Amino acid sequence: MREAKKVIITCAITGSIHTPTMSPHLPVTPEEIADDAVAAAAAGAAMVHLHARVPETGRPTQDPAVFRRFLPSIRDRSDAIINITTGGGLGMTMEERLAAAASLKPEVASMNMGSLNFNISGAAAKYDRFLHDWERPYLESTRDFILPNTFAQIEMAMRRLGDEGGSRFEFECYDSGHLYNLAHFVDRKIVEPPFFVQGIFGILGGQGPDLENLAAFRATADRLFGQDYYLSVLAAGRHQMRFATQSLLFGGNVRVGLEDSLFLGKGVLAKSNAEQVAKIRRILEELSLEVATADDARAMLQTKGAANVGF
After folding, report:
1. Transmembrane residues, as ranges (predicted)?
2. What is the topology classification, in CATH, of domain 6-308?
């Protein structure tokens, strides 16, 4: 692993897991997403990971036209690296999931490194009523859902977004097997270092939120990629800050944001993404670590630069 001399904070602004009923602070409209992303960047996020939502209902969408309603505002009001999801929303086809990143050609795009059972149905039982009709069935459908990312799909996406669009990748790995999937593409020289490996913990269907799993994950990545990768870590819900702090102690990078957790602390909803960024930044600086600027992160990850995107 390349130890991060300066720590990249990624902030995942809205995602596609949480629904509007769960928090009044979840950004939904283009204006809310843009404002939250800009504030997160001002608080210390070098990169913002972005999904889009239908403004009227908050349902996830990958329509490039919706992304175009907030990406220029973020670009013009901050210097953050813009990272567009290819995970999209549950039940979308691969073509739908790739549409925004293929059209908008960001500096970075996410890349899920394998298929997995992705179960967030437990959240539906916590609410008697939902603001929108789509929310409960959307959540409950994941009891019988597989998020597909076959080798053929991953290769097609890497070639389209990387070779044709010049985007680098946030390789999202939900278990150690996904690291071996990434190594397969590395061996075939379809992707080149440095690799930005995002270890994901605490999603039902992926690796559990046990710190021993993080240690094993890092050891596996070290064996496979040596000094060719940067580690970043995110964990769902109440595990978010604990895992982010452990990543810092390992010499890694961190991801926070309302996509991953709606809370700032036990029982306390985060009022913004910037609050979570500020919290992990305080922890980071108390550990005598330095926050990477957006330009630091560009140099570390060897992105194509903000001037070369498609929006």
Report:
1. none
2. TIM Barrel (3.20.20)
Predicted confidence (pLDDT) per residue in 109-156, tens digit = 999 999 999 999 999 999 999 999 999 999 999 999 999 999 999 999
Distance CA 193, CA 234 (A): 21
Amino acid letter, residue 200: I
Reported as a single tens digit per residue, the pLDDT across 205-225 is 999 999 999 999 999 999 999
Pull the structure tokens for residue 183: 């190594």
Report how far residue 288's alpha carbon sits from residue 250's, in angstroms, rounded to the nearest whole number.
14
Other Cβ atoms less than 10 A from the Cβ of 99: the count is 20
d(CA 2, CA 251): 8
What amino acid is encoded at 99 in this protein? A
Q: Which amino acid is at 163?
A: D
The backbone torsions φ and ψ at residue 60, rounded to the nearest 5 degrees and listed phi first, read -60, 145
Buried b (16+ CB within 10 A) or exposed e, 175-193: bbebbebbbebbeeeebee
| Block residue for tokens 């073509």 | 95
pTM > 0.90? yes
Which string of DSSP letters, residue by residue, matches the chain? ----SEEPEEEE-S-SSS-GGG-TTS--SHHHHHHHHHHHHHHT-SEEEE-EE-TTT--EE--HHHHTTTHHHHHHH--PEEEE-SS-STT--HHHHHHHHHHH--SEEEEE-S-EE-B-GGGGGG-S--SSTTHHHHHHGGGG-EE---HHHHHHHIIIIIIIT--EEEEEESSHHHHHHHHHHHHTTSS-SSEEEEEEE--BTB--S-HHHHHHHHHHHHHHHTTSEEEEEEE-GGGHHHHHHHHHHTT-EEEESTTT-SEEETTEE-S-HHHHHHHHHHHHHHTT-EEPPHHHHHHHHT---GGGS--
Tally Cβ neighbours within 10 Å of residue 24. Answer: 9
Domains of the chain by residue range: 6-308
